[in-house]
Amino acid sequence: MITLTVPRGTATLTQAVENSLTMAGRGLLRMRRTPEQFADALLEPVLFTVMFAYIFGGAIAGRVQGYLPFLIPGILVQSVLATTVMTGMQLREDIDKGVFDRFRSMPIARSAPLAGALLADTIRYAIATVMTCLTGVVIGWRPAGGIAGVILAGLLVIACSWAVSWIFALVGVLVRTASTVQGASFMVLFPLAFLSNAFVPVGTMPGWLQVFVAVNPVSHLITAARELTGTASAGPDVWWALLGAAAIVAVFAPLTVRAYMRKV
Amino acid sequence: MVTANSARTVPAIQTAGLVKTFGATRAVDGVDLSVPAGTVYGVLGPNGAGKTTTIRMLATLLRPDAGTALVFGRDVVREAAAVRRLISLTGQVASVDETLSAAENLVIFARLLGLNRAAARRRAGELLEEFGLADAAKRPAGKFSGGMRRRLDLAASLITTPPLIFLDEPTTGLDPRTRAQMWQTIRRLAAAGSTVLLTTQYLDEADQLADRIAVIDRGTVIAEGTPDELKASAGGSSLQLRLADPGQAPHAREAIRAVLAVDAILSLEGGRITAPMDEPDRVADLLVALRDRSIRLAGLSMHQPTLDQVFLAITGHETQPQGGREEEKAVR
User: Fold this and answer.
1) Do B128 and B254 reside in the same domain of the chain?
2) Cβ proximity of A156 and A76 under 8 Å
3) Which terminus of chain B has fewer Cβ atoms in its 10 Å neighbourhood, N or C?
4) Residues B91, B166: one domain?
């Protein structure tokens, strides 16, 4: 005998959270099966941290040691943000598979397959964060904010990167191939990462560029990370960064879910 | 709660003028379907006829460009969330995660459907057992054979028993033994009270499983009815004889005319004779007649009408771009 439960129209928030966590669990299981895809998150931070420290250290701060408190938070944000592009690429590959058709035809929160995938990818950001900080410590970084400050900065960067990954998820849903995701994403990410206060003091830049750097949200995140690692205290930039992250999610999550559900 | 009794009065599927275009192609061009609840309904057509596109619209994966579709009275566009609670879809493309094991896949789907951890694991175990996959439970789905994959796909659709089950070409590419297993499973689902809508390219399969069949070609339904009605329109079965001595063909045709009262067709590739054969019981009479005339046979087979013949009968053209499979039942 069949019993039809008269269905509610949309999923409740509790269901959305539960579904997303299940999907995140799926993402983690997949990662355990294919550990090689972490190579970029493991190696890139090491490479960039060492490179930038020894190239610019002398020119900007007189010596590498003096440059590290300035550089590490900058490179941390830059590395982790670069990793978010991978999220968009993977999502692109994933949603072409039949299993996403099944998710879309199941009575689950519509945002869950995306939110879960993005949530699982915060592991990737955590790895990039740890690698950057470890590399920094190895080459002589001694953050004044102590362990607590570094952990808070790391969590902030991961949270903001999760927000930013919704942008690349949208790109991933809209474009046709993973390599297009990469191309389009770096066009956006490179100017944002480099036209910021990440690597050099803003005072050395021309006036028009200083204006851009000042409004660039990445600069605010880097300043926030510097405050936390340097003093373990939250200044206004921490709140700006969190507000910015919330705004990105509020705008891009619904757009991405909509595009995903409409996908042919 | 809507109980089984009142659900039966609402059709499982009701579409009117369903249209979907991709660029200049009208993949689905005004499909009208009415699928009574509790039946197995076959959608029969060649590749590219619009079967999959129709299913994807009914399963809320594609938005129709025009027309309406109701699943148990609920609109697939305006009440998509409600529709998703009433259906499950097993698509042509494997709809499980290849990197995960069979058990992991099922547990994830069960968790998404609201089962708690223990219940999800128990249900996954039951399904693996039921579909003969218990031994392969821990292997990645990507390493499964075609038949095991289909079974896992289907198992994933049956975690809860939804009132309407879509199966998109459930047996395409399966070997005969696995196909027979799949048929059995589909019959069991129907017996348990679910409505099943399946697509197929094989008349024989639709005939075996479906209570009613819609024949679809170039995005429209060109015929609808019971399997018997459709087969009748295609002209029934035929008998094919292969003679040991092609020179005896004229005698053989004479015998066929005498026994069956029909004209047999002599094929060019020597010694092959085809005759319309609506009553297989008469084969014995014919064989006796042939032996009396000392006509020796090298082979004998009965042919069911193929999708091609149904198409020819209904539309006047053969299936395009790919013909149906010839179903042969050897009488030895």
Assistant:
1) no
2) no
3) C
4) yes
State pLDDT tens for residues B250-302.
888 888 888 888 777 777 666 788 887 777 788 888 889 999 999 888 888 88
Contact call for A33 and B79, based on CB within 8 A = no
**What's the pLDDT band for A1 if we cut at 50, 70, 90?**
very low
Do residue A106 and residue B82 have CB atoms under 8 angstroms apart?
A: no
Pair type for strands B164-168 and B195-200? parallel
Q: Are residues B135 and B267 in the same domain?
A: no
Query: What type of residue is A22?
Result: T
Quick one: B209 and B240 in the same domain? no
Question: Does one domain contain both B64 and B161?
Answer: yes
Report chain A residues whose CB lies below 8 A from the CB of B93.
97-98, 101
Cis peptide before A143 (omega within 30 of 0): no
Instruction: Pick A98's closest partner by Cβ from B1, B91, B163.
Output: B91
Q: Using CA atoms, how far apart are residues A25 and B103, in angstroms rounded to an integer?
A: 14
Residues of chain A contacting B161 with CB distance shorter than 8 Å: 2
Last residue of a domain, one of B217, B232, B247: B232
When divided into structural domains, chain B yields a total of 2
Which domain CATH number covers B55? 3.40.50.300
Of A106, A112, A264, the CB nearest to B84: A106
Is the pTM above the cut of 0.80? no
So what's the pLDDT on residue A263?
65
| Close Cβ partners of A30 (under 8 Å, ≥ 6 residues apart) | A120, B97, B99, B100
Q: At a CB cut-off of 8 Å and minimum separation 6, what does B65 contact? A: B19, B20, B21
Q: Alpha-carbon torsion B60, B65, B70, B76, what sign? A: positive
Residue B186 has pLDDT above 60, yes or no: yes
Let me know whether B316 and B186 are in one domain.
no
Shortest Cα distance, chain B CAs vs residue A29, angstroms: 7
Domain check: are B213 and B102 in the same one?
A: yes
**Chain centre distance of CA B172:** 9
Nearest to A7 among B81, B100, B140 (CB): B81
Name the one residue in this structure whose structure tokens are 């039966």.
Answer: B8
Q: Distances from the Cα of A250 to the Cαs of A106, A167, A186, A256, B269, in angstroms?
A: 24, 11, 23, 11, 73
Residue B274's domain spans which residues? 234-330
Cβ-Cβ contacts under 8 Å between A and B: the total is 106
Q: Which residue of A has its CA nearest to B90?
A: A102
* B27 and B8 belong to one structural domain: yes
Spatial distance between the Cα atoms of B85 and B79, rounded to a whole number of angstroms:
10
CA distances from A66 to A54, A57, A61, A144, B11 (A): 11, 7, 6, 12, 76
Assess contact for B68 and B75: CB atoms under 8 A.
yes
Query: Which 3-state string (H, E, C) describes A107-172?
Result: CCCCCHHHHHHHHHCHHHHHHHHHHHHHHHHHCCCCCCCHHHHHHHHHHHHHHHHHHHHHHHHHHH
Two tokens at B236? 């029934």
Closest by CA to A172, choosing from A161, A158, A184, is: A184
